[in-house]
Write a structure and sequence with these properties.
The chain has eight helices and six strands. By secondary structure, it is α/β, with parallel strands linked by helices.
């Protein structure tokens, strides 16, 4: 929907107070997307689009950098360096699963990456168990495991009626399941003596 879609997101922000995180697909679109979004997302397919990484590095907005589907941890961190090198130090890394030989799940969620990033970098890392598994029934256990592994946040897809979602319905939680998960996450974070929102 291009700019009209961005305008709808801005309206939703005004109505709810929620911040907008949305994907930017190419360097030519960075200025437009940055005019509406609070955080620019670089999707897994663009993790190694170095012109785009440099452009978001210059835009002044925080960047959510998703791990490429076949990227090593070192390659992911090197991609972040392109953003940091342009003077933008507000980078959030997102583990969203990598491609392996496993076919039951959409991807293989690499939770060892959370500990590795915490050891190798100062950057915050969040986990996306929705894309990481592709199955809503696996979102809760993987979200809980991500919190236990030290993730700084979660990216979870929610839809009022996942069966009718135009995309990603099989990996989306309904609002009741999401609310129950957030309660469990808060309890786990408290048990682990970690802060949660």
């Amino acid at each position: 929907m291009e700019e009209q879609g961005l305008q709808y997101l801005a309206e939703a922000r005004e109505a709810t107070g929620l911040k907008i995180v949305t994907e930017v697909m190419d360097a030519a679109s960075v200025e437009l997307v940055a005019a509406y979004a609070d955080i620019l997302q670089i999707g897994a397919r663009n993790m190694q689009n170095f012109h785009l990484l440099k452009a978001v590095g210059r835009c002044g907005k925080p960047v959510l950098l998703k791990r490429g589907i076949a990227a090593t941890i070192a390659e992911w961190l090197h991609a972040a360096e392109y953003i940091l090198n342009e003077g933008n130090y507000n980078v959030i890394l997102c583990e969203r699963g990598i491609r392996t030989f496993e076919e039951y799940t959409r991807n293989t969620l690499d939770l060892s990456a959370v500990g590795a990033i915490k050891h190798l970098s100062h950057l915050p890392v969040i986990v996306d168990p929705s894309h990481g598994t592709g199955k809503w029934r696996l979102v809760r256990p993987m979200a809980m495991a991500a919190v236990a592994a030290g993730a700084d946040g979660l990216l979870i897809e929610v839809h009022p009626n996942p069966a009718e979602a135009l995309s990603d319905g099989p990996q989306s939680l309904n609002p009741a399941n999401f609310a129950a998960l957030m309660e469990d996450v808060r309890e786990l974070a408290a048990f682990l003596r970690r802060h949660s929102a």
